[in-house]
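REVIEWER CHECKLIST
Item 1: Sequence provided? yes
Item 2: Single chain? yes
Item 3: Sequence as submitted:
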Amino acid sequence: MTAPTLLIAGTKDRLYPLDLAEQTAAGIPGAELVLYEGLGHRPTLTDKRLARDALAFLLKSEGRQGQAGV
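Item 4: Structure as written out by the authors:
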């Protein structure tokens, strides 16, 4: 996989445990893993700002922030 990849996980996720999220991120070259302390599965549904902030981080790290259509 060569596309920028962002994995988002909660540290209290019982459906997709932290160790599995870390293994998944390690298996994707250049992947970023963003962890949200104390949250469970699908932390971005808990707080929509988390998704926005994580996506902004990915776009900034890829130099794509502010481009049209992104």
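Item 5: Key structural point noted by reviewer: Residues 1 and 28 are 7 Å apart (CA to CA).
Item 6: Recommendation: ____
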